């Protein structure tokens, strides 16, 4: 699998990574995660991204591939020590506790990247959270520090100069970052992780999805009316076009896709075998966005 230099970090990351949200929130079985991640590593995956608030995601990952730790780069996030629904806590004490707990759960002595998880610019301005990550880096608990978030909060994080990496939404249905964030991150030499790179495959639904996680993209796709991804009538190649679009955006180094299906990661890897998305198709997707997108179509956290 193709590898890209992850900004100034020196890491060479696989263009397709694994996102650990679904295995935690959707109750994946350990046996399925074992099969999923080990087969993905065998096929060339070397990026695993998770968070302390994705329920038992970190534990599942640690048990599945902790014994293969040297084969992949391990990213996690802090800011919701007691779970996403319990609210945020970016205090230095909470961040330190979260990192130590993540190290144990993930069965490792050091993380490759710890990210602040969707905190506001106001929180960043206080400085405590950034300082806490800096201390963790200085202590050897993480090699690099990053920010995971979107829109103007992410722009502030980039311009602060404090972070080595950015994780943000980039997809056919979430293009604000392409102009607002990616050029600024590239200028700073940051590694860039694209989350939700296939727009949650929201085109699968012919009617409004019951899960709010998919609804915003589904609504946008109805208005964008891409010929390959109209909700309820998507072509078989929709996921391939969507993923290759995201990876074609200047500044993106790796795109993380989450799943609890043991075979899905390898199937997603197959989507890239079609090669780079033609420039004409990229330009058409961008033109449609610029024509249709509303001012409130900002990056989705």
Outline of the structure:
By secondary structure, the chain is α/β, with parallel strands linked by helices. 42% of the residues lie in helices and 16% in strands.
Structure notes:
The chain is an alpha/beta fold. The chain has a single domain (3-199, 250-277), classed as NADP-dependent oxidoreductase domain (TIM Barrel), CATH 3.20.20.100. The chain is built from 13 helices and ten strands. It has helices spanning 21-25, 30-42, 57-65, 92-105, 121-126, 128-138, 151-160, 176-180, 182-187, 212-224, 238-248, 264-271, 279-292; strands at residues 3-5, 12-14, 16-19, 47-49, 73-78, 111-117, 142-148, 165-169, 191-195, 254-258. It has an eight-stranded parallel barrel with strand order 3-4-5-6-7-8-9-10, surrounded by five helices. A two-stranded antiparallel sheet has the order 1-2. A hairpin with a 6-residue loop joins strand 1 (3-5) and strand 2. Helix 2 (30-42) crosses helix 3 (57-65) and helix 4 (92-105) packs across helix 6.
